[in-house]
Amino acid sequence: MKRKEAIGLMSAGLVGLGLKSPSKQVAPSFGAASLKGNINHSACRWCYSDIPLEKLCDQAIEIGLAGIDLLKPSEWQTATSRKLKTTMANPEEFSLTDGFNNPSLHSKLQKTYAEVIDKAADAGIENVICFSGNTNSLDSQKGIDNCARGLESLAKQAEKRDVLIVMELLNSKVDHKDYQCDNTPWGVALCDKVGSPNFKLLYDIYHMQIMEGDVIATIQKYNQYFGHYHTGGVPGRNEIDETQELYYPAIMKAIIATGYKGYVAQEFIPKNEDKIASLKAAVSICDV
Length: 288
What we know:
eight-stranded parallel sheet; 14% strand; alpha/beta; globular; 288 residues
């Protein structure tokens, strides 16, 4: 019997018994009380930029999110007023391409980030994001040395203020050509060079699946270097459902097994017209 014929007979048998064939997962209606509490869920603001932040915050509360990721200082109060956390802060203005691997930018970046770290600490915000910048032909080791030198004083400040600085791992193959912090070993080497418990990596599952694969094994091996996680469907960076290649429940279980207590933020770009329904479904998938 051919595979297609077998599947057809199985489906017909289910119908004959009054049962439906397996269908795509539908997002349930739930709130914080229905979540298991093993994952602190968040969502990245930019993925829902067409939704007013106030409305997004209200819907986040209904879903049961702990907070919103990637908010700038002028937006923090909107989340705070609704008893949501800013789970990842960024400066009012920042660049992915011009980062800490460029010594000519150190003075400017140190001033910007010193201010953001203090503001975040005063606001009770735990995490601040930063970026390596593009290589612009800079070799790997020089990039590590430059970033470490630029981050040294900020890491010390972060230790005093109890704030975690995280550098995001981004793919340089599809979305961010020439970005330097594009693989886990490079980021780990930078963390070792900085040598501060308050400097870690943002492990973006979407980006690192593209660059490295081996997601669960990487989490198991390097989890002590990861201070934050982002999701996204591969390929395309869309919904994390059965249309893409990663199985997120297993990835979330691997994260939980490391003892991680931080945040997992959804950073996929919804294709569905009802973006909040897609967000609910993603949280359901990841709530293991």
